[in-house]
């Protein structure tokens, strides 16, 4: 078997790999950008590769940029559909429109070969790059979600049921939608023997546009049903900056502390 690759093809292939890797990294990491900004960046990548495929000269570069244009379009539609949780009829429409666009584009490729574009390649790609920078700049200049915690000063603990420890109000001060991702917490309950406390933040998968949303923070004591430990009753709540609960506490109380990467981030204090 004989492989006939020249240096140009190798460089094009490596560039294509890094382009796909950049898109995957953008979507798979916790980069602090709005889902709308990420979606628009994917669309602009599709537009840029499409422009390059039509305006640049050379069979290899046209083939590579056409392939990247298709991959960008697939990633853009898939990401937008799932991140914005579109309804099934809208999803079907988006897929059908995408299919028609590419079918029509493929059918008309030969007719576009001699077309005189109003902008040259550099001007078109520069315009797309400027649009991308504007989206990223506006996103970066606007504040991220603000979290405000309101903890109860005491709670009535039940052995079998969850109990409300407090609530968090998440606010978006700009028009770009963002996903609600609040801090995580752990806790212990002392009766006065130490017992684990499962702390759970109410989950909300909906995007938060400009406005605010309030979510409950609940707890549940971790006590085996066949144990003789009784922990029911009124407990004061204390918010602490710590990595774990202390081994011994002399009084009945509930201690709550941030866990994971959220340690020390805006947890507030009990009133």
Quick structural gist:
By secondary structure, the chain is of the alpha+beta class. The protein contains 5 helices and 10 strands.
Average the pLDDT over all residues and give the rounded result. Answer: 81
Q: Tell me the total number of β-strands.
A: 10
Strand fraction band?
A: 15-25%
Question: Based on CA inertia axes, which overall geometry fits?
Answer: elongated
In which order are the strands of the major sheet placed? Answer: 1-3-8-6-5-10-9-2
* Contiguous helical run count: 5
* Biggest pleated-sheet summary: 8 strands, mixed
Assembly classification = single chain
Q: What's the number of domains?
A: 2
Radius of gyration using CA atoms only: 27 Å
Low-confidence stretches: 261-271
* Distance between the ends: 76 Å
Structural class, by secondary structure, is alpha+beta
Helix content: 40-55%
Write up what this structure looks like.
By secondary structure, the protein is of the alpha+beta class. An 8-stranded mixed β-sheet has the order 1-3-8-6-5-10-9-2, with no helix packed on it. It has a two-stranded antiparallel ribbon with strand order 4-7. Strand 5 and strand 6 form a beta hairpin. It is elongated and about 85 Å long. It starts with 6 loop residues before the first helix and ends in a 13-residue tail after the last strand.
């Amino acid at each position: 078997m004989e492989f006939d690759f020249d240096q140009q093809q190798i460089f094009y292939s490596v560039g294509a790999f890094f382009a796909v890797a950049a898109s995957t990294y953008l979507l798979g990491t916790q980069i602090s950008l709005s889902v709308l900004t990420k979606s628009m960046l994917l669309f602009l990548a599709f537009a840029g590769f499409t422009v390059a495929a039509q305006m640049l000269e050379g069979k290899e570069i046209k083939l590579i940029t056409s392939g990247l244009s298709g991959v960008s379009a697939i990633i853009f539609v898939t990401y937008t559909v799932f991140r914005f949780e579109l309804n099934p009829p809208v999803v079907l429409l988006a897929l059908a429109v995408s299919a028609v666009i590419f079918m029509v584009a493929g059918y008309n490729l030969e007719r576009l070969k001699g077309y005189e574009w109003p902008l040259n390649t550099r001007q078109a790609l520069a315009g797309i790059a400027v649009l991308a920078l504007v989206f990223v700049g506006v996103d970066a200049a606007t504040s991220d979600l603000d979290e405000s915690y309101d903890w109860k000063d005491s709670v009535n603990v039940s052995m079998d049921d969850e109990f409300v420890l407090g609530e968090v109000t998440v606010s978006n001060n700009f028009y770009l939608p963002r996903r609600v991702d609040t801090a995580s917490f752990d806790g212990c309950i002392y009766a006065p023997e130490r017992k684990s406390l499962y702390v759970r933040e109410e989950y909300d998968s909906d995007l938060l546009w400009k406005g605010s949303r309030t979510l409950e923070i609940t707890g549940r004591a971790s006590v085996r049903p066949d144990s003789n430990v009784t922990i029911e009753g009124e407990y004061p709540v204390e918010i602490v900056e710590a990595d774990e609960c202390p081994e011994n506490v002399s009084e009945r109380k509930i201690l709550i502390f941030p866990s994971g990467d959220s340690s020390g981030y805006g947890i507030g204090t009990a009133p």
